[in-house]
TrEMBL record:
Function comment: NDH-1 shuttles electrons from NADH, via FMN and iron-sulfur (Fe-S) centers, to quinones in the respiratory chain. The immediate electron acceptor for the enzyme in this species is believed to be ubiquinone. Couples the redox reaction to proton translocation (for every two electrons transferred, four hydrogen ions are translocated across the cytoplasmic membrane), and thus conserves the redox energy in a proton gradient. This subunit may bind ubiquinone.
Family annotation (HAMAP family): NDH1_NuoH
Transmembrane segments: 76-99, 119-140, 160-178, 190-210, 239-262, 282-304, 324-342
Gene this protein is translated from: nuoH
Any one of the GO CC terms: plasma membrane
GO MF term set: NADH dehydrogenase activity; oxidoreductase activity, acting on NAD(P)H, quinone or similar compound as acceptor; quinone binding
InterPro entries for this protein: NADH_UbQ_OxRdtase_su1/FPO (IPR001694), NADH_UbQ_OxRdtase_su1_CS (IPR018086)
Biological process per Gene Ontology, one example term: aerobic respiration
Annotated protein name in UniProt: NADH-quinone oxidoreductase subunit H
Organism: Pedobacter insulae
Length: 345
């Protein structure tokens, strides 16, 4: 195997891991600043200029806090839970195309860890595995509130994965591929899938809120009923892993929505830009455009959290089973009919 290929993939994986951690870390800062803006407050302003060093202070605090394991907990599983949640959150970035292929000295370097022809199925598999970290942590804590939270999280994820999968089926009818790289390539310029699948995108986005346990779907962490949910008994970096996993999931979900529905790294006039700036700078500009879309989605996640109150659990389940699933099925039928008519004429 080509040693340069191995080095390139290793560097890309390392960079993606570092970026994921950095975005997760500063998402905590952005969360507080967005909340402060919406509530007419200042937010963090002590650690560094404009509070920019607050995430570092929080990280040091997490590392320095005492590591507590409940005496009646299943100790090995208690440690496995947050690690599994963090692992499943990070590996979702592997199939996302972060930009066009780089041409460096005649060597083509793809800005994607791996382009598998079932990339969409891979993402759904990773999403399905993520809830096991929550389930294991809640059960291993030997705490009734943590266990109830874990059961809630599993029920919520299963319920909304159905609607999310159905919304993707309609998208696949349009794209005819499971490869994320091909899906992005088809959205060149302004041919974004959100134009052809607006209802599918709305369903997918709502399900993304539920899958990441973000408000107004944060029932597994409902403080008024379950104290802190599945991480009630956790402290130090084990708690930090759960919190980081949530923000990395939010980052990955934003990247997936931007990739599937908003063109990924594509933007209007990119061919003209490529002729002006060259084959090296053009893919990097596309990557910057993709991250701009991701940050807009992350801001939307935060805006919704501090705007809409938390649902009751029965409302959450009714929306999933009686609202989103019928809409997603109707979207598939309508999409199929439109495609059949277009192909015929």
């Amino acid at each position: 195997m080509d040693i340069n290929f191995i080095i390139e993939k290793f560097l890309l994986v390392t960079i993606l891991f570092a970026i994921s951690l950095l975005i997760a870390m500063y998402s905590t800062y952005a969360e507080r600043k967005v909340a402060a803006f919406l509530q007419d407050r200042l937010g963090p302003d002590r650690a560094g200029p404009f509070g920019i060093l607050q995430p570092l202070a929080d990280g040091i605090k997490m590392f320095m806090k005492e590591e507590i394991v409940p005496s009646n907990a299943s100790k090995w599983l208690f440690m496995v839970g947050p690690g599994l949640a963090m692992l499943c959150a990070c590996i979702g970035t592997a199939v996302i195309p972060w930009g066009q292929d780089l041409n460096v000295g005649g060597r083509i370097i793809p800005l994607q860890v791996t382009d598998i022809n079932v990339g969409v199925l891979y993402l759904f598999g990773v999403v399905s595995l993520g809830v096991y970290g929550v389930m294991i942590g809640g059960w291993a804590s030997n705490n009734k509130y943590s266990l109830l939270s874990a059961i809630r999280a599993a029920s919520q994820n299963i319920s909304y994965e159905v609607a999310m999968g159905l919304s993707i089926i309609a998208l696949l009818l349009v794209t005819n591929t499971l490869s994320l790289k091909e899906i992005v390539a088809q959205q060149h310029g302004w041919h974004w899938n959100v134009i052809y699948q607006p209802l599918g995108f709305i369903i997918f986005m709502i399900c993304s809120f539920a899958e990441t346990n973000r408000a107004p779907f944060d029932l597994p962490e409902c403080e008024t009923e379950l104290i802190g949910g599945y991480h009630t008994e956790y402290s130090s970096m084990k708690l930090g892993f759960y919190l980081f996993a949530e923000y990395i999931n939010m980052f990955v979900s934003s990247a997936v929505m931007a990739t599937l529905y908003f063109g990924g790294y594509n933007y209007p006039g990119m061919d003209w830009v490529a002729t002006q700036v060259g084959p090296v700078a053009a893919p990097l500009i596309g990557t910057a455009v993709l991250f701009l879309k991701i940050f807009m989605f992350i801001f939307f996640f935060m805006w919704v959290r501090w705007t809409i109150p938390r649902f009751r659990y029965d409302q959450l389940m009714n929306l999933g089973w009686k609202g989103l699933i019928p809409l997603a099925i109707a979207n598939i039928i309508i999409t199929g009919i439109v495609i059949a008519v277009v192909n015929k004429f």
